[in-house]
Amino acid sequence: MTIFPLPAFQDNYIWILRDNDTSQIWAVDPGDAKVVLQYCQKNNQTLAGIIITHHHKDHTGGVAELKDSFKCPVYGPAHLTHLITQPLKEDDQVTIFNRQFRVLETPGHTLDHLCYFSNQPEPILFSGDTLFRGGCGRIMEGTATQMLAAMNKIAELPDDTLIYCTHEYTLANYRFALSLEPQNESLLEANLTCQTLRQQDQETLPSNLALEKKTNPFLRSQIESVKSQAAQQLSETIADLPSDAFGQVRRAKDSFS
User: Would you say 37 and 14 are in contact if contact means Cβ atoms under 8 Å apart?
Assistant: First the structure.
């Protein structure tokens, strides 16, 4: 199986999983049907299935047309009854080309957010808008407590897990991360690497969990220096509770320019 992105809108990626032995593909969060249809027509491919991480239109806007065109199954949050054929919950399994993906419920960005994790042959995670390279999604429907729980759940996965998120936000995320940890050598190196990739019009993804633990402030909100800098940017005292400290880091990012 090969995984690659189709760019959509300004900064979205529609991840495509292609079976190397057939002419079939699956799509993750196809917000734009045209992008997927054009790929299939150009490469003589058939869409065999869709998985959805959450309900936002830039992740679901193309689903209805693609489902109608290919008569394929659609897996995703249970309440999306107008789009999905297979409702999912925590620990459900989705089989894509003989590879098993386990569903992780990760509310925070939205209340319905799901991630998809597969451990074989190498660990990969489709993280949607929960975990980005160097960042996390805005808390739009959930709470800081929920988003921290999602971060902790992802942090328990193997360190070599490849992280496939759905937006090219990396350089902006790193600018904020560096405002909290300007001397973080792993972060400085990652930022330079990604600047070069973007200059060459290449995506900065996937990342990997080990790198995120070293560089992503939303997986590091328990570190005193990170908490202190976030509180300072907000002109607040340092929060005591882990969820409050995480919330400070998220609010600092929201107000960062």
Answer: no
